[in-house]
Amino acid sequence: MEIPEAILKRKSVRAFAPKGLTDEEVDTLIQSAIRAPSAGNMQPWAFVAVRDRGVKEQLVEASRGQAFIAAAAVVIVVCTEASRNSARYGERGATLYCLQDTAAAVENIMLTAAHNGLGSCWIGAFDEGMASQALGLPAGVRPVAMIPVGYPDQDPPPRPRRPLAEVLHRDRW
User: Fold this and answer.
1) Cβ atoms 45, 78 nearer than 8 A
2) Distance (Å, rounded) from C-alpha 156 to C-alpha 19?
3) Which of 88, 132, 152, 164 shows its CA 20 to 30 Å from the CA of 42?
């Protein structure tokens, strides 16, 4: 599959078949994540791959009841250690670069999932404190995104996108 095909194939999947993922499949997703670009190659990311039903249920609660999260074979929680960026880039590293870096990692996971016939969904709406507690995250590690991943049990239609003429400005706004 070529990159443009993977981009077009990627959709937000919120229904999963009751089929698990192997450790190798999860490792492939994380291997793609850690190949994402990062400011100064500081790589501020860390990942928690959640299969435990009880922990997934706690993540559902943290996400304001997004129940489909628990049905995924695995929930990959992408975290950042902002201190890795702030040591070099100060406040901008801690408040922006670490989030940009993890966003790139999230997209790599989702494109790799789509390429491999898996469904995923980027979850950003959740209580960070509740998620941190459910995952036992140490101080200084912040959960940034949850990605439920599994074999899709739906094929949602593509979502509409704003037209190029509306979003592209050439040389100046």
Assistant:
1) yes
2) 19
3) 132
Task: State the virtual CA torsion across 51, 153, 115, 164 in degrees, nearest 10.
Answer: -120
Count how many residues are written for the chain: 173
Q: How far apart are CA 94 and CA 6, in angstroms?
A: 31
Torsion of CA 133, 135, 139, 142, to 10 degrees: -100
The helix (run of H) or strand (run of E) holding residue 54 is helix 53-62
Question: Sign of torsion, CA 132 63 53 11?
Answer: negative
Task: Output the pTM of the full model.
Answer: 0.94
Judge contact between 29 and 113, C-beta under 8 A. Answer: yes
Q: Which CA distances in Å does 95 have to 14, 49, 78, 85, 141?
A: 30, 24, 16, 9, 13
CATH superfamily of 3-167: NADH Oxidase (3.40.109.10)
**What 8-state DSSP symbol labels residue 157?**
P
CA 25 to chain centre: 15
What residues does each domain of the chain span? 3-167
* 85-142 tens-digit pLDDT: 999 999 999 999 999 999 999 999 999 999 999 999 999 999 999 999 999 999 999 9
